[in-house]
C-alpha cells in the first residue's frame, strides 16, 4: 500500500457541501487539543497523538515512508 | 477626497411629518442605507411594499471596507437589478494564490465547474456597490429614502413600532408595522432595545491600504504567509476597480493604530512589497480589529435585524455584506406573505432560524481562517507552518491551507420549511439547497441562465424530454397551482419542444440542469422565492405539492 497524499479528510456522519469543511474541522480540533497546555504538555499530546495514529495505520513500511516525508525539508533545509 | 472616486452627496429633504402633529403610520421602515438596508428596501419595494428608508448620513460608505462580492450575492443582486453593473465595473476573479515565505505553495479556483453565469467573486469598492443600490432604490417609486435622518429612539409595541427620527430641521416620530434594523455593527437600535450580541474579538490589528497603481498583475487574490517583505505576519493583495489595489497587512496586537496609519510608516511597507520602482499613490489607510459575534435571535417581535447589526465576522472569507444580502433575500418573501396575511407571523421565526444557522457557519469558517492566518501560541504556529511546508509537495496539505474560505451560501438542511425527500436523488440539490445555476435556452426569450427564471415567488420546475408532451392532467394541475392563494409559477425544463398553454419552457441546452438536479422525465422541484429548494419528487403529485407549499410558507402541513 502507498501512503495517501491526496486530501482524505471526511466526516461520514455529517453531510457537508464544501470540500474544505472536514479538513478544517479536524484542524480546529487539533489546535483546540492544545488549549491551556504548557509546552511540555503540548509536546506530550503531540507524541501520544502520533503513536495512536501510527498504531491505527499499523503498516510499518507506510509509517517509515511517513517518517521520511515528515523529515524532508526540515533537516538541513 | 479620493483620487479615483468622488463621494456623492445626497440632499436632505424636509419631511412633511415635521409639520404635522399626528404620527404617521407606514407599513415598513428600514433603518440604515448600507448595502444591506438598501437591499432590503429594494427587495420589499419590488414586492410592491412601500418602504421608508432612513440613514443618518448623506453619502455612501467612506474609505476601504467591503471588496469581494460572492457569486451568490451577485445572483441576488441580479434580482435587485444591480448585478450587471457590479460585474461590469468590478474585477472578476476565480483564482487565488497562496505564498509561504518566498515560494508559491498552492492555488485554488473558486468555480471549478463550468457553465455558471456569475463568477466566484467580483472585487469592487463598497462605495460603488452602495451607489448602484441607491440608483436602483431611487428608480423605485415606493422607496422613500431619507438622508440625514438619525433614529434616536425606538418604542416596540404589540401592533406597531414607533421610532423617533432626528434631522437637521428637527425631530419627528414615525410608526410602522415592521421595523428592519440594518443599522450596522454598532446598531443603535439593538442597543436601545437592550438586546445582546455575543462573540469574541480577535487580538490582532490589520492595516488596510488602498493604492492606485498601474500594474499588469492578473486579476487574482494573492495571499502571503510570513513573506520576506513583512516577516512573521500575513499580507493580502486584491485588485479593485479603477486601478485601485487593496493591501491588508497583519500588524499584531501590539501595533499602535495611530502610528501605523501615518504615510511615513505605510509607504515603506508598500515599497518593500511592490519593489522600489513601482509607482503608486496612497488612496486610503485605516487600521481595523475584527470580531465574530451574533445575536441569539434576529427577529424580536416587529423588529427584524439584518446584516452587521445581527452578526459580524472577520473579513477573511468576505462573509460580511455577502451574508447580509442573503439575510434580506431570505426575509423579503417571508415578510410579504406575513403582511398579506397568507402566512402566520411564525414564518419570521424561520428567518431567524435559517439565518442564525448561516451566521454560525460564517462565524465558524471565518474564525477557523483567522486562527490559521494569525496563530496564537507556538504550537498553533508550528502546525500552521508544517501545513504550509507540506503544501509545497502534497495535495492533502494544500486542502488544509486556510487563507479564508470565501463566502458561499448555506444549505438550510435542518429548516422546518423543507419537505424531506421521499424519493431517491443524487447530487447536492437537497431540500434547503441554494439552486445551482446552469445555461438554458428560454423558448419565450429571456435570460440564457437558469437562475433569473426563478425567485421573487414560488416556482415549480418540472422536467420532461419533450415539453409539448406535457399531459392535460398535469397541465390542469399546474394551472391550479398558479391560481392558488400563494401562487406557484410552473417552469418546464425540457430537451426540446414548447409546453402547451403558454407555460414557461426552458431548454436544457447543455444538459447541466439534468446533471446538477438529477432530473428524470417527470421530476418536480418546488423552489422558494429565494431560490432555495423546498421539496422535490419523481412525479407530479398535486396533493404533495400543496402540502409542501403549506410547509414552506410556515403553515401547518
Ligand atoms: C476592512 C473590511 C473589509 C471587508 N471586506 C468585505 C468583503 O470583502 N466582502 C463583504 O461582503 N463584506 C466585507 N466587509 C464587511 C462589510 O463592510 C459589512 O458587512 C457591510 O458594510 C454591512 O452592511 P450593513 O448594511 O449591514 O451595515 P453598514 O454598512 O454598517 O451600514 C449601516 C448604515 O446604518 C446607518 N445608521 C447607523 N445608525 C443609524 C441610525 N441611528 N439612524 C439611521 N441610520 C443609521 C449608517 O449610516 C450606515 O449607512 C468588510 C468590512 C471591513 C471593515
Structural write-up:
The complex is a heterodimer of chains A (77) and B (557). Chain A contains three helices and no strands. By secondary structure, chain A is mainly alpha-helical. The two termini of chain A are 28 Å apart. In chain A, 8% of the residues are buried. The model of chain A has no long low-confidence stretch (mean pLDDT 94). With 557 residues, chain B is an alpha+beta fold. Among the domains of chain B are: 16-90 and 122-197 and 292-365, FAD/NAD(P)-binding domain; 441-552, Glutaredoxin (3-Layer(aba) Sandwich), CATH 3.40.30. Helix content of chain B is 28%, strand content 26%. Chain B contains 14 helices and 27 strands. In chain B, strands 1, 2, 8, 9, 10, 11, 19 and 20 form an eight-stranded mixed beta sheet that branches. Chain B has a seven-stranded mixed beta sheet with strand order 6-5-14-15-16-13-17, sandwiched between helices. In chain B, strand 10 and strand 11 (170-181) form a beta hairpin. The A-B interface holds A 4-9, 15, 17-20, 23-24, 27-28, 30-31, 34, 37, 39, 42, 46, 69, 72-74 and B 365, 368, 371-372, 375, 377-380, 383, 387, 389-390, 392-396, 398-400, 402, 405, 408, 411, 413, 428, 430, 433. The complex binds flavin-adenine dinucleotide (FAD). The site of flavin-adenine dinucleotide has 33 residues of chain B, from helix 1, strand 9 and helix 8. Residues 31-37, 54-57, 61, 65-68, 126, 150-151, 182-184, 188, 208, 288, 307-308, 315, 318, 320-322, 324 of chain B line the site of flavin-adenine dinucleotide.
Amino acid at each position: 500500500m502507498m501512503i495517501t497524499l491526496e486530501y482524505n479528510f471526511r466526516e461520514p456522519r455529517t453531510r457537508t457541501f464544501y470540500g474544505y469543511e472536514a479538513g478544517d474541522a479536524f484542524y480546529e480540533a487539533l489546535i483546540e487539543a492544545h488549549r491551556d497546555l504548557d509546552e511540555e504538555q503540548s509536546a506530550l499530546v503531540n507524541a501520544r497523538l502520533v503513536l495512536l495514529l501510527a498504531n491505527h495505520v499499523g503498516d510499518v513500511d507506510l509509517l517509515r515512508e511517513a517518517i521520511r516525508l515528515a523529515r524532508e525539508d526540515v533537516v538541513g533545509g | 477626497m479620493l483620487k479615483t472616486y468622488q463621494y456623492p452627496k445626497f440632499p436632505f429633504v424636509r419631511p412633511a411629518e415635521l409639520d404635522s402633529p399626528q404620527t404617521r403610520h407606514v407599513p415598513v421602515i428600514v433603518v440604515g442605507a448600507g448595502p444591506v438596508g438598501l437591499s432590503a428596501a429594494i427587495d420589499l419595494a419590488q414586492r410592491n411594499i412601500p418602504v421608508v428608508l432612513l440613514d443618518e448620513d448623506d453619502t455612501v460608505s467612506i474609505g476601504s471596507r467591503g471588496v469581494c462580492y460572492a457569486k451568490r450575492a451577485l445572483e441576488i443582486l441580479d434580482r435587485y437589478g444591480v448585478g450587471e453593473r457590479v460585474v461590469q465595473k468590478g474585477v472578476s476573479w476565480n483564482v487565488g494564490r497562496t505564498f509561504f515565505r518566498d515560494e508559491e505553495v498552492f492555488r485554488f479556483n473558486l468555480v471549478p465547474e463550468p457553465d455558471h453565469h456569475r463568477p466566484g467573486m467580483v472585487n469592487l469598492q463598497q462605495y460603488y456597490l452602495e451607489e448602484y443600490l441607491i440608483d436602483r432604490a431611487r428608480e423605485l417609486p415606493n422607496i422613500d429614502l431619507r438622508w440625514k435622518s438619525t433614529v434616536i429612539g425606538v418604542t416596540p409595541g404589540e401592533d406597531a413600532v414607533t421610532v423617533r427620527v432626528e434631522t437637521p430641521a428637527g425631530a419627528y416620530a414615525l410608526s410602522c408595522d415592521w421595523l428592519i434594523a440594518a443599522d450596522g455593527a454598532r446598531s443603535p437600535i439593538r442597543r436601545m432595545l437592550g438586546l445582546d450580541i455575543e462573540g469574541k474579538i480577535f487580538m490582532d490589528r490589520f492595516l488596510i491600504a488602498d493604492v492606485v497603481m498601474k500594474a499588469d498583475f492578473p486579476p487574482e487574490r494573492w495571499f502571503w504567509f510570513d513573506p520576506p517583505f513583512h516577516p512573521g505576519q500575513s499580507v493580502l493583495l486584491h485588485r479593485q476597480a479603477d486601478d485601485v489595489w487593496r493591501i491588508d497587512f497583519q500588524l499584531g496586537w501590539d501595533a499602535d493604530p495611530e502610528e501605523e496609519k501615518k504615510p511615513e510608516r505605510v509607504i515603506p511597507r508598500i515599497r518593500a512589497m511592490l519593489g522600489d520602482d513601482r509607482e503608486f499613490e496612497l488612496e486610503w489607510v485605516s487600521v481595523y480589529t475584527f470580531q465574530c459575534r451574533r445575536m441569539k435571535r434576529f427577529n424580536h417581535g416587529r423588529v427584524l435585524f439584518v446584516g452587521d447589526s445581527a452578526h459580524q465576522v472577520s473579513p477573511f472569507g468576505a462573509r460580511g455584506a455577502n451574508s447580509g444580502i442573503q439575510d434580506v433575500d431570505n426575509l423579503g418573501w417571508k415578510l410579504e406573505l406575513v403582511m398579506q396575511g397568507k402566512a402566520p407571523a411564525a414564518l419570521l421565526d424561520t428567518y431567524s432560524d435559517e439565518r442564525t444557522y448561516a451566521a454560525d457557519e460564517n462565524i465558524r469558517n471565518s474564525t477557523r481562517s483567522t486562527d490559521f492566518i494569525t496563530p496564537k501560541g507556538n504550537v498553533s504556529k508550528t502546525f500552521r507552518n508544517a501545513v504550509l511546508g507540506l503544501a509545497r509537495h502534497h495535495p492533502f496539505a494544500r486542502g488544509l491551507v486556510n487563507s479564508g474560505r470565501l463566502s458561499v451560501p448555506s444549505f438550510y438542511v435542518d429548516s422546518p420549511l423543507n419537505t424531506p425527500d421521499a424519493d431517491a436523488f443524487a447530487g447536492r440539490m437537497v431540500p434547503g439547497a441554494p439552486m445551482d445555476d446552469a445555461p438554458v435556452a428560454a423558448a419565450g426569450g429571456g435570460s440564457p441562465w437558469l437562475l433569473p427564471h426563478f425567485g421573487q415567488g414560488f416556482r415549480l420546475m418540472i422536467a420532461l424530454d419533450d415539453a409539448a408532451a406535457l399531459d392535460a392532467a398535469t397541465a390542469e394541475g399546474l394551472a391550479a397551482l398558479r391560481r392558488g392563494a400563494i401562487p406557484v409559477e410552473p417552469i418546464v425544463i425540457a430537451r426540446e419542444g414548447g409546453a402547451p398553454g403558454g407555460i414557461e419552457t426552458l431548454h436544457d441546452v447543455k444538459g447541466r440542469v439534468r446533471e446538477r438536479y438529477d432530473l428524470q422525465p417527470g421530476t418536480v422541484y418546488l423552489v422558494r422565492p429565494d431560490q432555495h429548494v423546498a421539496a422535490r419528487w419523481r412525479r407530479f403529485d398535486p396533493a404533495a405539492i400543496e402540502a409542501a407549499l403549506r410547509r414552506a410558507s410556515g403553515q401547518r402541513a
